[in-house]
Amino acid sequence: MAQLKIEQGSTSHSAYNLRPSFSDVEERHTLAVLVENEPGVLARVIGLFSGRGYNIESLTVAEIDHTGHRSRITIVTTGTPQVIAQIKAQLGRIVPVHEVHDLTEEGRSVERELALFKVRGQGDKRVEALRLADIFRASVVDTTLESFVFEITGTPEKIDAFADLMRPLGLVEVARTGVAALSRGAA
């Protein structure tokens, strides 16, 4: 009778190696969900996430078709590939949901976010804040003798980088819209 020797830590593909090969690496995904624009839909979508302990990094929602009463919810979330697949499947089962698109998996997409930054400062810090705003193509939308309010549009990473640079210069308040995203190309 032949003996089978299995070494510890072996990753060979055999019937004796029953460990699942699921990835436990978390990935960031942007989901576009087309829904009926009716009361309670957003609460049901959010309830799906909170009820299962999934995190939402960014959430935007707006009506996109007034005559058809449709809204688009853009959700940025993280999870393992299995968790993302589960989220998409569960979103698709909610009755007022028409379509679920994973923009991350469907190919290249354009993501933008709008943010407002209030920066308080005088002297050199004020001049430096204006210089950095110019580099980041941020607009001054309000100014007083003590502070500026900057408006900036870009990727979430660009917004984060601007915030990091403004903190030591007197950043006092931030308002962000969340990610708006569309897939690239004709489709």
From TrEMBL:
Keywords: Amino-acid biosynthesis, Branched-chain amino acid biosynthesis, Transferase. GO terms for molecular function: acetolactate synthase activity; acetolactate synthase regulator activity. Signal peptide: none annotated. Gene3D superfamilies: 3.30.70.260, ACT-like. Chain A, domain 2. Pathway: Amino-acid biosynthesis; L-valine biosynthesis; L-valine from pyruvate: step 1/4; Amino-acid biosynthesis; L-isoleucine biosynthesis; L-isoleucine from 2-oxobutanoate: step 1/4. GO terms for cellular component: cytosol. Residues 30-105 form the ACT domain. Its EC number is 2.2.1.6. GO terms for biological process: isoleucine biosynthetic process; L-valine biosynthetic process. It holds the Pfam family ALS_ss_C. Transmembrane segments: none annotated. Dimer of large and small chains. Catalyzes the conversion of 2 pyruvate molecules into acetolactate in the first common step of the biosynthetic pathway of the branched-amino acids such as leucine, isoleucine, and valine. This is Acetolactate synthase small subunit. The gene is ilvN.
